[in-house]
Specification:
By secondary structure, this protein is an alpha/beta fold. Helices cover 40% and strands 16% of the residues.
Length: 528
């Protein structure tokens, strides 16, 4: 994109540089692996050596491509030690990109080009690792007795941030211009003219909802482009977000909502609160977008792949009819192809036997391709139906960059834990928002930022620790809706944080204010 196509080049150049620094630090950590021996990587916890495949499983998932309706075939392989012993301490985690090497010696020096396959860790215990591989059964054949897993780098998150940042700053941006203006004003340290309209609302889904939450929900439901929900610990921030989401859906059943957080755990927490309100069958409008192995067990039923596999057309017609026909014709045409080639070698290409076999194998191949086309068409119909029925989409900020999410505009975008995520991460879901709700507490821990060794770059990157939420509040202190009633502490415990961080605006809930455990010396707080 040229300089002329960027409407806000200063904003783009500034955050693009910070993203590049973050990516460089991430890749630097991985590059330290290159050139080291397997033995050295094992000591650093970046490698697990000599494991064996104990299970192979074919799975079907959404394809990461511009073809938003594609489903691709993948393989999950389970890796364990032969002796069923624990893995040594390591840095591998669910979601890690890994390299797979076949039977390398302890003294082999690791390089990326010696790894025939790469994969993604989708399951991990002390005894076994499940790795997802986009491949075929044939290409897995080289993985036999001894396999070594080497930890890779994150090559998805930062490119997604940069791509969406460029769109956000471009002249072709189709999102809410008022929201973008607030963010650009904040970047230039200019105050924005923000409304805080509220509607009249008396019926709430959560029966025990206090007045500060009611006021917040009324404002969120009002005619505002951007709202900030300031929820100190224990004040019910996530519950207020869930109430607002359900109110938005019930105010208009055609409304679409996108709910994002920086972590999968936070996404699942708010999803469960929303699903508790909606109940079945209304919760079929919920879609949890993202890798099914990264979500909690209780929210897996809302994932695309779960809904896809449970759909009647897939469960019965595709798996028990089309897949069986596909397998039959695939086997048939490959066998006839072998016979044809053998006949050509023995009798010649123009022999009657060879011509008959050629026609037979081509007919079988055409039948196989015809079934494959039907399978692809059926998958597409089912996925379109799932997305058409969905109204509330839950995912991480990074996953919000995928085509399925970016192809739609949302009446409300909610970013929970917005103070624990960086500004470039927030920009991804913001691009598709008609109305934006940022929820968080800037008095708590900031976002996790990778700090480079160079002093100049380290100083630059530290800016990312200040969230967009906090920057807007500093310039527009009147805009946040504060949740003032604290449900986790009595008056004595609340006194210090309330005075130090919240200017005395918080108060304990009536049922908690005089609640004392008296565990130590008849005191609520003991400093040791």
């Amino acid at each position: 994109m040229t300089e002329e196509e960027l409407q806000y080049p200063e904003y783009y150049e500034h955050y693009s540089k910070l993203i590049d620094i973050q990516q460089k630090v991430s890749e630097f950590e991985f590059r330290k692996s290159v050139g080291k021996t397997i033995k050295e990587l094992m000591k650093e916890g970046r490698c697990i050596h000599r494991v064996h495949i104990t299970r192979r499983e074919r799975v079907y998932e959404r394809k990461e491509s511009e073809d938003k309706d594609a489903i691709e075939e993948k393989f999950n392989i389970t890796l364990e030690y032969n002796t069923r012993r624990k893995f040594p301490e390591n840095s591998l985690a669910v979601g890690s990109n890994v390299y797979l090497l076949a039977d390398p010696s302890d003294n082999l020096h690791f390089k990326e080009n010696i790894a025939p396959l790469t994969g993604l860790i989708v399951g991990l215990t002390n005894f076994s690792i499940i790795v997802e591989i986009l491949s075929s059964a044939h290409s897995l054949s080289f993985l036999h007795d001894d396999i070594t897993i080497v930890l890779g780098s994150d090559h998805v998150t930062y490119p997604r941030q940069k791509k969406m940042l460029k769109y956000f700053c471009s002249t072709s941006y189709m999102g809410n211009g008022c929201i973008r203006e607030v963010i650009i004003n904040t970047f230039h340290k200019r105050k924005s003219t923000l409304k805080k309209d509220a509607i009249k609302l008396d019926n709430f889904f959560f029966k025990k909802i206090d007045e500060s939450k009611k006021e917040a929900v009324r404002s969120i439901m009002g005619n505002n482009d951007i709202l900030l929900l300031h929820g100190p610990p224990g004040t019910g921030k996530t519950l207020t977000c869930a109430e607002s989401i359900c109110q938005t859906i019930y105010s208009n059943s055609n409304n679409k909502i996108l709910v994002c957080c920086d972590s999968n755990e936070a996404v699942d927490n708010i999803l469960l609160k929303v699903s508790d309100i909606l109940k079945k069958p209304a919760d079929n409008i919920i879609l949890r977008v993202g890798h099914p192995f990264k979500v909690q067990e209780r929210t897996k039923e809302y994932t695309l792949i779960k809904k896809f596999n449970n759909h009647p057309l897939i469960k019965h017609f595709l798996k028990h009819i089309l897949y069986e026909e596909s397998t039959y014709w695939n086997k048939e045409y490959k066998e006839k192809q072998k016979e044809y080639r053998k006949s050509c070698t023995t009798f010649g290409t123009n022999s009657e036997n060879s011509e008959d076999l050629f026609n037979t194998y081509k007919n079988a191949q055409n039948n196989y391709f015809k079934i494959q086309k039907q399978i692809h068409g059926l998958r597409k119909i089912v996925i379109e139906e799932i997305y058409k029925n969905s109204r509330i989409y839950f995912c991480t900020n990074s996953v919000a960059a995928i085509p399925e999410i970016q192809s739609q505009v949302y009446d409300l975008v909610v970013i929970d834990e917005a103070t624990q995520t960086t500004e470039p991460s927030c920009i991804i879901p913001i691009c598709r928002a008609n109305k934006l709700l940022l929820a968080g507490d800037h008095k708590q821990l900031p976002a996790t930022v990778l700090i480079p060794k160079e002093d100049a770059e380290a100083e630059l990157v530290k800016e990312l620790e200040t969230s967009l939420f906090e920057k807007i509040i500093i310039l527009n202190p009147e805009i946040p809706c504060l949740l003032a009633i604290q449900y986790r502490m009595n008056d004595t415990l609340l006194f210090f944080p309330n005075k130090k961080f919240y200017d005395g605006h918080l108060r304990s809930a009536e049922e908690n204010k005089d609640n004392h455990l008296n565990l130590f010396f008849d005191k609520d707080i003991v400093f040791i």
